[in-house]
């Protein structure tokens, strides 16, 4: 049975990504990296469900989602962009298979970083980020989600690459086999993958060819 919750605050963090802070229902719990199906609680939208990852931690008093809106076509994320405090969303059961299995490299494509946000925030809160690295690919520097927060996390190494920003001083390469060989020396570690389906499949194949243990690859199955 869906639960209706009120939006308490929205905050724009990139040109097309916002934080949504929501009421937290009593007894509602989840783990870092988990998600739920969300819909907009208004006529014509209640049955249009989309999966979004919690970016808050379970001990926060409020829920938070960090959502990219695709405003080039009508849909749930485009409609979300027009919502503000006081509007309502519907939440459902919690699910998800991206869980922390130990130090390793997190590789994200665009909004694929969102399942890693709560995991890295939880590790940061406990002082357990040593040995972890975040590699993220975006179109431009302006599209990097929570760059300042990630760079401020003690013990977390970050590597940003952008594919459509010729003026940047960041890396300007796709994350492919050649990129992985250039920037990773130890393929026996854990790897956490999230992004477009084709990207994740290509990365799984590339990592396995480079010697990564298939059992040490974590992605949303």
TrEMBL record:
One of the Pfam families matching this protein, by short name: NAD_binding_1
Xref: Gene3D superfamilies: Nucleotide-binding domain of ferredoxin-NADP reductase (FNR) module, Translation factors
Domain FAD-binding FR-type stretches: 1-101
InterPro entries tied to this protein: FAD-bd_FR_type, FNR_nucleotide-bd, MRET, OxRdtase_FAD/NAD-bd, Riboflavin_synthase-like_b-brl
CDD domains per record: FNR_like_1
Protein name per UniProt: Flavodoxin reductase
Organism this protein belongs to: Devosia rhodophyticola
């Amino acid at each position: 049975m869906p639960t209706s919750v009120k939006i308490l605050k929205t905050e724009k963090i990139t040109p097309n990504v916002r934080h949504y802070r929501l009421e937290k229902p009593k007894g509602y719990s989840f783990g870092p990296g988990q998600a739920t199906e969300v819909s907009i609680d208004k006529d014509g939208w209640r049955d249009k469900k989309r999966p979004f990852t919690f970016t808050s931690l379970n001990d926060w008093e409020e829920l938070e989602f960090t959502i990219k809106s695709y405003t080039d076509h009508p849909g749930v994320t485009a409609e979300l962009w027009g919502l503000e405090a006081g509007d309502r969303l519907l939440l459902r059961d919690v699910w998800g298979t991206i869980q922390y299995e130990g130090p390793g490299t997190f590789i994200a494509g665009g909004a694929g970083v969102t399942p890693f946000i709560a995991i890295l925030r939880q590790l940061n809160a406990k002082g357990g980020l040593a040995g972890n690295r975040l590699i993220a690919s975006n179109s431009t520097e302006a599209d990097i989600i929570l760059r300042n927060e990630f760079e401020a996390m003690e013990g977390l190494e970050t590597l940003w690459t952008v594919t459509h920003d010729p003026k940047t001083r960041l890396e300007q390469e796709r994350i492919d086999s050649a990129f992985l060989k250039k920037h990773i020396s130890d393929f026996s570690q854990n790897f956490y993958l999230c992004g477009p389906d084709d990207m994740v499949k290509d990365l799984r194949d590339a990592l396995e060819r480079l010697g990564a243990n298939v059992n040490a690859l974590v992605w949303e199955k």
